[in-house]
Amino acid sequence: MESEIQALSDHNPATSTSSRPTPGGLQDLAFGSLAGMMGKFVEYPFDTVKVRLQTSAAFSGTIDCLRQTWHNEGPQGFYRGLTSPLVGAMAENALAFYSYNRIQAAIRSLSGQEHQDVLPMSQLFASGALTGVVCAFVISPVELVKCKLQVENVQAYGQQQYQQPGKVKFKGPLSVVAHLVRSQGAAGLYAGIAPTVARECLGVAFWFGTYEFVCRQILRSRSRPGEPLPSKDSLGPGSIILAGGCAGIAYNLTSYPIDVVKSFIQTADMRVGADSAGVEAGRRPGVVATVRAVYARGGVPAFYRGLGITLLRAFPANAAMFMTYEYLTRLSADLRTK
């Protein structure tokens, strides 16, 4: 794959596919927001199972987590804590597409390229990495709230308390935020920020980079050697679904161990007994201590616990996001030319 990426990087952008005019800032924000909403509805039940597998020892595997969650909480259990990440996904994707396009524009300006020039793959990966750093500071508090709500009920599984559903610590996202601010100050909302930045920098680079790479490979397969690549607008739904799905898988494969560390830090005060894995409950562990604790819990495989269901949801969720963004952008461009 590296040789393919290098070949695309060395390809003269001026002879590459011409792109549609870059959407305006407000359009990027609006279209990215809607794309994030669509993707989150698709992926959230899978994400709940992933976080519970990452942070709790109450389950023997994915099927057991599905069974216990359904038995104890019903279908709504898979959507517990949805409000915060739904808003967060809309904000994150709006910011992601906005930042990605603006960073590309800045690179073109600094390197003296034309506005419509398609950047080489190396610069697209760099644009994605910088976008990830920007997004991390927006989504870190959102994911902190989400993770706490997702794992809170797990501690009561099998206990008499679970026969009384009303007994929960948090009533919703605002309850979590209020508790964190009261007990830890505003800094408490950024527990796990270091691994979040690392995950997003690496993951988003591969998210956008893989999407662009797959799209270009499809376009190259349709063009003759030496000819400019067709426009990305010529790609149909099947191609976008493939590219978007591959982007989601690439994001998770490259960043998943970091995500486990992030989730572990953000739910440290929610774990007891076997789930504490050597980290004192109620105390926020550092990154190094968390890596050691996760490793002690099951060696290298512990850093990939829950990966299967994550990859299962990654393809359809990310395909939905890119489909939504691409077709809204095309519709907007068509309306402006009429």
From TrEMBL:
Q: What is this protein called?
A: Mitochondrial ornithine carrier protein
The species this protein was found in? Kickxella alabastrina
